[in-house]
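#dry-run=false #mode=assembly
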Amino acid sequence: MAIEIQHLNVYIKENQILKDICLTLPEKQITCIIGPSGCGKSTLLRTINRLIDSTEHVRLEGKVLVDGKDIIGSGHEITELRRKIGLVSQRPCPLPMSIFDNVAYGCRINRMYKKHRQLIYNVQKQLQAVGLWDEVRGRVRTSATRLSIGQQQRLCLARSLAVEPEYILADEATSALDPISSKTIEDLFVSLKSQYSIIMVTHTLHQALRIADNVVFMYLGEVVESGPARQIFEQPQQELTRKYLSGIFS
Amino acid sequence: MDIKRKKQVSEWAVKTVMWISMSIVFLLVFSVIWTIFSKGCKAMSWSMLTKLPTAGTYLGGEGGFPNAIVGSLYIVGASTVLGLLVSIPVVFYLNVYLKTSSKLAYWLRLACDVLFGVPSIVYGAFGFTIMIFFGLRTSLLGGIIVITMLIIPIFIRTMDEATRNFPREILDASYALGATRWETLKVVVRQIAPGIATATLLSIGRAIGDAASVMFTAGYTDSIPTSLSQPAATLPLAVFFQLTSPIPEVVDRAYAAALVLTIIVLILSISGRFITNRFSKNKL
Amino acid sequence: MVKDKLAQSVMLGLCLFSILMVVTIAVGLYLKSSPVLENKSLWSLLSSSEWRPMKGEFGFFPFIIGTVWVTVLAIAMAFPISLFTAIYLTEYAKSHVKKFVFPALDILAGLPSVIYGVWGVLVIVPWISNRFAPHFVDFSSGYTILAAGIVLGIMVIPLLVSLFIEVFSSVPMELREASLALGATRWQTTHKVVLRKTLSGVAAATVLAVSRAMGETIAVLMVCGCVIGIPKSILDPGYPIPALIANNYGEMLSMPLYESALMFAALILFAVVLVFNLLSRIILYRLEKTQQ
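#status=ok
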């Protein structure tokens, strides 16, 4: 199942932040959204999981189909939608609790398991999936804030995975990390794409070049060009895209 | 399905509780204001504001409480001026001379917050002993001294908050042009003037309504003081002393005084908010 | 340059003066209350219930109990209302709602103590006497600990709300969003993340409100009844410490020991308020720091 965006307009007060966005974000692939800062990349992500609702004076028009259902209308169950769409934010933000409770948090609020044993098993599984298990094995009950930044970001990823999402949104998830941690996260995303559809905003073109299957280039609230990564990087159709990319190709 | 329903129900329940809480707050505001206004308006007359009581505070007879209005204005006016004289330099020192991490700044802020929390009755008792120590009797001067002590910490902290949001880059820009700190202060003053105005209004509101501290220090009298050494009546005490009287005329005076006091405080609080709103609009 | 130096030293002097004021008040009150402290042991002053100034007996226990009762009642009423109002304002409310609520809170915060007293006498006292108390006791004048608690509770609401709002605002937005993004509702986010993160701040704010409530004088004095004795229920009159000082200060000048006893009452009040304030302020400062 894919995410399909049809004629999406987003206004905050009188300002139009997103202009007539039409996109298909294919499943089980990594889609990178690139573009200069302020072009609406983050707004687009926040619209997909409806976190934009907490912004004031916001108005949405158009359709965003997740699994074929429009999520813009008010009738939709937003908490269920958000469970289905994981988020990894720019700065890692562990919740003020232990490592274990961080990962278990989503399972608990959604009452996913009847038995505690299942919960423990799932937490361990997710920590293993992000390669954190061996590093924190003896201290899962200690505060998550004591982890290094890179570890915290992996913890946040594990936390998102624990609620069994189908999509993962990543908003410049590596920009606050050192090169090594950032490489680890990138590798994780690549290994996860067989199970999840990953949509990530990035401002480093190199990263998009390394891991993207699809690329969306946005500028001033509009999608300038989108398509398979190879095509966009090698034969951009638009002048604007060419100019933007020339930063790395010249 | 079940868990979704549970989430919805608890969300709805909590929202209801919050709405109830807010309604209680509004209800209370309304109730207090309405009580004061309905009683006060009935009792209010022109002579209340202009004619001195003829037969004494606790006895009936003609007259109102201009003595209390004038006394309050004297005390609040003088202590506002004194308070500003002390606290403006302190706030500048805090925010312009001292570094943000300074220990002195930390202790000063803490001291002011603690002083802010000291009950006014303690100020009153302490002020009274000081007055006796210096051989002063209950007087206008005593009231002014105690109210000044009471509002200095409020002045400092509210102005400090307003100044802290002030961008320090402007200071750097001013220094870069070769200005001394003293000259830079003038730049700062222009920037934080609205903050100072709000702080002043807040403190006046607190000063004019405080009864416990002026009870022993300024005393109460039926006449308008003509010198600093005479006792002075104040509005809150006019309410407090006259409310429990068995004579209806005297109780009416208390209601009218309460109305005057409330109106003054409301004007102060509304204009304070008006200034801060204007201020934040200009900043954006 | 000379002007600059001079200004600087004047300002430093004024700063030190402000800090010293705390110390001066403490020392002044202690010196004044030392006669009664020499006469009686601290313990007997605090635990005795005998209050006969003419015979030189000063037992503060009834007044301490009165203060505790009134304060606890006030906070018990103000805490939930303030907490939920603050949560609504920080976590739920749109800005147009805030535009109505903040001025209302401003008004509550700005009204003088004596006005609350008048309101208490006109509204709360008759209500207790005519409507509430008859369900439980044969007769109540209405001037009770309950009345004082209600009036005081309302007076601390604006303080508590503004402190809570400050505390909740220290939680970064991203933390809330992390929780929301996992499918949590607003309320789940609030009580599992925001409240959990700010537990110390909420406690500090409450302690601060307690200290404010303890020192409140005039409003309480007007509705508490002022009968010396240990109250058995909240429908009995009480006599908190500030009311004691305010009621008796004028008449005690002829008796040095009486004056000293009242100054000791002020010292107790000051000491408790000082400790509570220091504790809560230091916690709140820390919270503010982590936010930046």
